[in-house]
Structure to design on (525 residues):
């Protein structure tokens, strides 16, 4: 008698439904797995989980066994018959099927072993459609705790945790919440920024697709803390998988009484609506986002007043990033001190870093603040995908500075990067090898700004276009006559940095100046 005949319970196989995994063939893998298991009459259950964030191994499937989850990857649909021939389901439960794609116990994988996953702890582990699975993995403990606390104490816990906004500006979350808490208004709002426009970033998407209840819980806690009864998720239109995951999770949360009127008998009301973004980078800037949420063109508002005082529809509004809000349940569940104990200096807690670009192993690395760029690029990333020397990384999206290899000893935390004229932003790190032309990258930064500018202020609207023309002129002129225009470009950066109304024009000088400073030869020809 075969081992299979003695097994009655269906074997659970996790096949990521994450957009990144899907783009690499996960749908076809799930279909072929289901088809082949039916044909072979193998009792099975396929769960579409989030990605573990080891993208070079996607689609990465896992067989749930008594001895942990045995992973295989990268799996193509054509691999399914041979995986089943080699005992994917039988041996997955016991000795472990032997196949060239077998990765073994995924928790023991070197990529995951050293990580400190707090915010991303459940991504890839839970079934994102199953609220009971979420609860079984620690979900809704934070909300239960918050529901017993006075609003001011919830705000205090977030302040004491040291949490700073993960959307880019790193503003202390507790201070923002306190401002909204202190306003008297008939209506207050929680607006979640899920526009995730930065190049090379995907942690918001992974969270919404792989652990959507964490965001819903975080927003609900924020609502209780500041006295808001309505939340909005401003989701970029390019994230249809996240939209589906959120729609389902919101419906389930409502059905189970975790959203809506008198949620979980707390005497408090809170609900959430998803709004799809307009597809412009500037709509990620918080005041543009509010304009867009109100149904207008995404154009930056002049501050003051701050959104915390006069935000959505003129009411006090908390604007926070997905990762920021999804971190809040853990802070309430484990306590401010627990979270604060991670990190260095004023960068408390952990940050889900996103490694992308020309790198051998790209994906999600959540660690306490303070790991160096070297560790991320080489220990996790394995160096460049091309095998050529790594020349630079850009940290913090299209407005982030380029760091040369000589500065890869920089710790990934807010203050250390600021000291090197850089920023951490949303935690995206994009790798470039030595074939990159940094003058072209500076031109690209200015061109990006010109294309994405909302047009409201002159230094950005006009400056970015003049900047592109200047770089073109520098590159077209003979070597000896370039220095004058390089100085002019630096002056233009000054004007943009000091005169722009928002971060798009104000931060574009970061990539341009870092390229000029560290890679001047590329401009000199
Ligand atoms: C041009 C520009 C684009 C931005 N894009 C995003 C974005 O896509 N997502 C995001 O969370 N924050 C983005 N921000 C930052 C937001 O303005 C705001 O600081 C953030 O949403 C606040 O949330 P946090 O405190 O949780 O970080 C952007 C800022 C600028 C200047
Ligand atoms: S800096 Fe650019 S994007 Fe920002 S307000 Fe000015 S024109 Fe608009």
């Amino acid at each position: 008698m075969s081992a299979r005949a003695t097994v009655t319970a269906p074997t659970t196989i996790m096949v990521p439904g994450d957009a990144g995994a899907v783009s690499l063939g996960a749908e076809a893998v799930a279909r072929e797995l289901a088809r082949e298991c039916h044909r072979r009459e193998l009792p099975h259950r396929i769960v579409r989980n989030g990605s573990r964030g080891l993208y070079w191994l996607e689609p990465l499937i896992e067989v749930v066994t008594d001895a942990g989850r045995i992973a295989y990857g990268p799996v193509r649909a054509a691999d399914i018959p041979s995986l089943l021939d080699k005992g994917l389901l039988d041996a997955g439960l016991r000795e472990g099927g032997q196949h060239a794609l077998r990765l073994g116990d995924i928790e023991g994988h070197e990529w995951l072993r050293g990580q400190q996953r707090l915010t991303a702890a459940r991504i890839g582990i839970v079934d994102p459609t199953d609220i009971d699975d979420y609860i079984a993995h620690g979900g809704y403990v934070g909300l239960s705790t918050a529901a017993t606390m006075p609003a001011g104490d919830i705000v205090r816990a977030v302040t004491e945790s040291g949490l700073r906004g993960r959307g880019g500006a790193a503003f202390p979350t507790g201070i923002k919440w306190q401002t909204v808490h202190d306003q008297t208004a008939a209506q207050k709002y929680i607006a979640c920024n899920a526009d995730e426009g930065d190049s090379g970033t995907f942690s918001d998407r992974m969270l919404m697709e792989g652990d959507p209840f964490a965001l819903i819980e975080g927003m609900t806690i924020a609502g209780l803390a500041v006295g808001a009864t309505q939340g909005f998720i401003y989701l970029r239109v390019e994230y249809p998988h996240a939209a589906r995951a959120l729609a389902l999770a919101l419906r389930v949360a409502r059905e189970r009484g975790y959203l809506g009127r008198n949620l979980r008998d707390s005497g408090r009301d809170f609900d959430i609506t998803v709004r799809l973004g307009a597809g412009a980078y500037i709509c990620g800037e918080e005041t543009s986002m509010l304009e867009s949420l109100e149904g207008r063109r995404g154009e930056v508002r002049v501050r003051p007043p701050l959104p915390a005082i006069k935000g959505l529809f003129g009411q006090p509004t908390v604007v926070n990033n997905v990762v920021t809000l999804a971190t809040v349940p853990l802070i309430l569940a484990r306590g401010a001190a627990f979270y604060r104990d991670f990190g260095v200096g004023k960068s408390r807690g952990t940050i889900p870093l996103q490694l992308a670009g020309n790198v051998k192993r790209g994906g999600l690395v959540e660690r306490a603040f303070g790991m160096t760029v070297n560790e991320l690029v080489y220990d996790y990333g394995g160096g460049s995908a091309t095998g050529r020397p790594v020349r630079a990384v850009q940290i913090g999206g299209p407005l982030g500075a380029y760091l040369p290899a000589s500065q890869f000893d920089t710790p990934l935390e807010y203050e250390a990067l600021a000291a090197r004229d850089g920023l951490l932003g949303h935690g995206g790190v994009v790798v470039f090898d030595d074939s990159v032309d940094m003058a072209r990258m500076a031109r690209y930064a200015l061109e990006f700004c010109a294309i994405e500018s909302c047009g409201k202020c002159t230094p950005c609207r006009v400056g970015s276009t003049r900047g592109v023309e200047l770089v073109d002129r520098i590159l077209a002129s003979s070597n000896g006559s370039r220095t004058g225009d390089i100085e002019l470009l630096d002056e233009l950066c000054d004007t943009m940095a000091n005169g722009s109304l928002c971060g798009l024009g104000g931060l574009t000088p970061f990539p341009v100046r870092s390229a000029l400073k560290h890679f001047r030869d590329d401009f000199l020809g």
Summary: The first strand starts at residue 11 and ends at 14.
